[in-house]
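Case study 2.
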Amino acid sequence: MDFKNNAALLVDGTVAKEGSHTVTVEFNALKKDSQQYMDSGNNKTNFIKYIVTINPAAAQLLPDTMTAGGLTLTDIIPDNLTLVINKSFPMTLKNIKDQNDKPALNYSYDSSTRQLVVHVPDGKALELVFYAQLSGKNGKDIDVSNTVNLSGGTSYSVTSTDNKK
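Prediction:
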């Protein structure tokens, strides 16, 4: 991410000197992690809890002209997973830097393409949590790889992949 600072020295209302400096700061704007969901008896289940950390620095990722539209998080749910959203396994979105801020959860899921789309505001440190149920037999090791993409128009895009066995 580039941060640019412009300055001008005015002498008697006239620009005597101008300058600018750009600093590039690299940080992870997106991180996807998962954990196997444990039941109340602390037994492993076939559910996976996904935790997606979005913009932990709460930086403005989009240019000023595009911030109103926010960012779009896209996740194609793999064939061996089923997205689960219900009272027991709710999808949640929270601001991790400002507990008083309650961002609206605006999402859609197309079961035919298996695409989850979540619209999130720019400039906020957010955490999205959702659950998926793993297909297959209990006791068998199954590889699970899931990638999430965060984008904002044509100006911003970042991807994070979570691989587990």
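The chain is about 0% helix and 55% strand.
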